[in-house]
What does this fold into?
Amino acid sequence: MNIAIDGPAGAGKSTVAKRVAGELGMIYVDTGALYRAIALYLLNHAIDGDDEQAVEAALKGIRIEMKHDAEGQHILLNGDDVTGNIRTEAVGNMASKTSAYGAVRAKLLSLQQDIAKENDVVMDGRDIGTTVLPGAEVKIFLTASVEVRAKRRYDELTAKGETCDFDRIAADIAARDEQDRTRALSPLKQAEDAYLLDSSGFTIDEVVAEIIARTKAA
Ligand code: DC
It folds into this structure.
C-alpha cells in the first residue's frame, strides 16, 4: 500500500503524512529532504545553483542514502547524517531551484521508487502521484492558501524565537510556488486521480482522518 501526498510548501504535508504513517503503521518518506541534501552539498561547495551544467557535474560527487528508524527518516550525504542541517531557508531555496534540473530528478527517482516497492509508505513531495508512484493506491493533493501557509510558517519561526517578517514569508512562499509549478520537468501538479484537499479551514486531525478514511476505503 502506498499513499502519495503532493502539494505546495507549507500546506502541512509532512505533519499530516507523518501522522497518517504512524497511525497506519507505514513508513513516512519525505522526498523534499533528498532535494535538500543535494542543495546542501551545492551550497557547501559554493556551486552556483543557476548553472545547470555545474550542478550536473557536481552530482557525480554526491551519494544520498535514506534510513528509517524509530526516530523517523535520516538522510545521509556521502555517509554523513545531514537530517538536521537541511532545514534552512537557504537550503530550501537552493533545492527549489535545482530540483528543476533533469539530472537532479533522475538521480533521486529510483531511490524513491525502490523504498516504495519494498515498504508500505506515505510519501510526500511534489510529483509523487504523477511521476514517482503513478500507481499509488491513494493520492492526495494537499493545499492551503498562501496566507494560511505564511501564517503557519510565521508562527513556527516565532515559536522558535526567530524574528521574521510575515509579508516577506508570504512573498517567498508565492515565489516558491511559482518556481515549483512552472518548471518544465515534473512540475507541482495535481494528478488526475488525486483527491484535492484544501487544509485552510481544517485542523490537522480532520485532514488526517480524511486521508485515513480514504485509505481504508481504497
Ligand atoms: O518539501 P520541501 O520544501 O522540503 O522541498 C524542497 C524543494 O524540493 C521544493 O522547493 C521542491 C523540491 N521537491 C521536488 O521538486 N520534488 C519533490 N518530490 C519534493 C521536493
Remarks:
- Strands lie at 2-6, 27-30, 64-69, 72-77, 80-81, 121-125, 138-143, 195-198.
- The radius of gyration is 17 Å.
- The first helix runs from residue 13 to 24.
- Residues 2-217 form a domain with the Rossmann fold fold (CATH 3.40.50.300).
